[in-house]
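Each record in this resource describes a single protein on a pair of labelled lines. With that in mind, the following record should read easily:

===
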Amino acid sequence: MRRPSRTVLALAAAAAFVVSGTGVANATTAQPTSMAARFGTVPASSAAGAIGDIYPAKWRNVPQDSVVDDWNMYNRECVSWAAFNIARHGESANNYGDAKYWDDNARNHGYRVDNTPTEGSIAQTDNGTYGHVAIVDSVHGGTVTVEDYNWTGDGHYLVHDVSASSFRYIHFYN
């Protein structure tokens, strides 16, 4: 999910860096309800084979939405995290845009999109202003453990369980 005020945050981060040299901005903005609030979130099961936060430091260690990644997406967003992981498997979601468009873009590029979660598939929803994407880590009947960025709207990595029926699944490499 992309935050609506990226320009304000980028300017606040730049100002904080200039003033303090740390690059930490304390600007707060009104945000739409997070995906966590929309869907609820449950701690991930301990049996999950989590990928872990392997997102590159050049995007992880700077303020959210302050840089554009190699796939033309803002850093620390769900789409950037997913595109990074898709690229690790030799596929591309370059310029796929907001998460709510990913299922249509993937289908138009010949990828399978369905309601069947599999390990490694991309969980996708149109819910919210921008939609959301996450990587399926494991499937437990009606629940999937996913890894994503920005589920709570704060630009952080999270592993959590969600209802499998809440998403469509894009099969880039599985």
Remarks:
- Residues 1-32 have pLDDT under 50 and may be disordered.
- Strands lie at 42-43, 112-114, 122-125, 132-140, 143-149, 157-163, 168-171.
